[in-house]
Design goal:
By secondary structure, the chain is mainly β. The protein is built from no helices and eleven strands.
Length: 114
């Protein structure tokens, strides 16, 4: 059974930083894509960042230059370093993995507020 477990969400002031982590279990081969999506209240889920097994990265336009994705292929983990956070970054952040099918974590809340 494939599971994605996120950690690292929380409350941070504008301009602050947070680091999200996600570990995939139940997969014993290469994960083609791992990444992060987010969903704010009343909005559609949107891409934050995704990274292929080979190292190619894609970022959502609103986070370019502020967020950095990284992954450890050997451990099946993916991280998201979020800097210069803004109130509009407030959302539930979901870990994502594509391994023959799409898998999602349970989500972790990120709140940016003073």
């Amino acid at each position: 059974q494939v599971q994605l477990v996120e950690s690292g969400g929380g409350l941070v002031q504008p301009g602050g930083s947070l680091r999200l982590s996600c570990a995939a279990s139940g997969i014993f081969s290469s994960i083609a894509v791992m990444g992060w999506y987010r969903q704010a209240p009343g909005k559609q889920r949107e891409l934050v960042a995704r990274m292929t097994y080979g190292g190619s990265k894609n970022y959502g336009d609103s986070v370019k230059g502020r967020f950095t994705i990284s992954r450890d292929n050997a451990k099946n983990t993916v991280n998201l370093q979020m800097n210069s956070l803004k109130p509009e970054d407030t959302a539930v952040y979901y870990c994502y993995a594509h391994f023959y099918d799409d898998y999602w974590g349970q989500g972790t809340q990120v709140t940016v507020s003073s």
